[in-house]
Each structure stands twice: as structure tokens, then as C-alpha cells.
Amino acid sequence: NAGVTQTPKFQVLKTGQSMTLQCAQDMNHNSMYWYRQDPGMGLRLIYYSASEGTTDKGEVPNGYNVSRLNKREFSLRLESAAPSQTSVYFCASSTRENTEAFFGQGTRLTVV
Amino acid sequence: RKEVEQDPGPFNVPEGATVAFNCTYSNSASQSFFWYRQDCRKEPKLLMSVYSSGNEDGRFTAQLNRASQYISLLIRDSKLSDSATYLCVVNKGGSYIPTFGRGTSLIVHP
What is the Cα–Cα distance from A43 to B2, expressed in whole angstroms? Predict the structure, then answer.
């Protein structure tokens, strides 16, 4: 069972570079999320997509963009990476009926 | 005030101990409540849902107090393998968006 798949698992970027984090789920979930996790801060919501074709800002959207390509895929883009975006990024998905969220394995991003 | 608040700990307990964590939430319209477990450098995984009537799964018991807006997790007979961070998660009413507390670290020692 694949569940939620994120790529890449690790990435080092130089300040100003751009990259896209990929996320795909095979559970036919409507909702997908991107979180970042920093020490002592817990998981903070960057963007979410309640259904295919819609996206909305979360708690910390600045410096990021997202695309809900289809029901399965939800990508996160950093247009110009900054050291403050060094973090662990998690993609998650869920149904809309208040059920649990399933997470990908995370992407460890370092911006130097 | 953060929407979901937890004591970060760490809670350092011996094997066999009983330990309890609390979590408070600010949005009275919240509808769904969960406890997740996160091991070091891993993704969060569902431990258990929290129902209005409370629920128990083996050594783990979760309770919800809507009047005081808090949920709790009780772990009995702690095992070394229970060492992890426990995340309180609240889904806001109407949006289904999981909102996480900062997590409570549990260390179980021999």
C-alpha cells in the first residue's frame, strides 16, 4: 500500500534557487495538505486543497505556491528559497468527513 | 493564543508507570479530535480518535471534555517503545483541516 508518497526525501538548495516538492496519494482522498515542521513549533499548515481544483492558504503560506494537479497530486513550490525555509515538509491527505490524515514520509530541506 | 496547546514536556517516566497528557483547544466549533504519535524523524501516525464518550485501546485511553475544551491521553503500564512525541490534533468545524499542537515528548526509561 503506497498511501502518500513524497519526493524527494532530502534536498539541499542554495538561497534563491527554486524547487518543487511532489506529493501523490492513492487513497482517493479529496483533501490534501502541506505542513512544515520546525523544532519546538509543531506542524504548521502551509497550504491545503479541500478538493480537486481548489487551494487555500494556511497559517504560513508566504514564500510558497501550490498546485492541485488532479485528485491524486498536490505539489509545493518554493520560487526563491530562503534559509528560513529550512524545515521538514510533510504532505498529508484525508477524506472530508473528519477522519484521520495520512502523511507522507517527509522531505528534509536545507537552504544554505 | 495558539489554537491547540500542549505541554511540550519531556515527560520522563520509568517502565510500568502511568502517564497522562492534556491538550486544550480554543475553537468551540471543533468537531473531531485525535491523538497522533510521531517517532523521531518519522511522519505522524494516528494513535487514536477521541470520541465524546471517550475511548480505550489497550493501554491507551482518550477522553474529551467539550465544556472545558480539552482532551486527554492516558497511557498505562508504559513500555520503552512508547517513547515518542504525542501530537494532539483538532479538526476545525466546517473545514476539516487538521490543526496540530506542538506535541508532548515522552521518554520511558528502564
Answer: 12
Q: Does B32 touch chain A (CB under 8 A)?
A: yes
Let me know: does B69 contact B26? Beta carbons within 8 Å. yes
Q: Is A19:A13 a contact under the CB 8 Å cutoff?
A: yes
Concatenated DSSP letters for B10-54? -EEEETT--EEEEEEES-TT--EEEEEEE-TTS--EEEEEE-TT-
Q: What share of chain B is helix, strand, coil (3-state, %, to 5)?
A: 5, 55, 45
Set of cell numbers at residue B8:
511540550
Note the pLDDT tens digit of each residue in A35-78. Answer: 999 988 889 999 999 988 899 999 999 999 999 989 999 999 99
Residues of B in contact with A98 (CB under 8 A): 31-32, 91, 96
Q: Which residue has the cell 480505550?
A: B56
Q: Do B43 and A106 touch (CB under 8 A)?
A: yes
Could you tell me which residues come within 8 angstroms of residue B53 by beta carbon, excluding any fewer than 6 positions away? none
Residues β-bridged to residue B98: B91
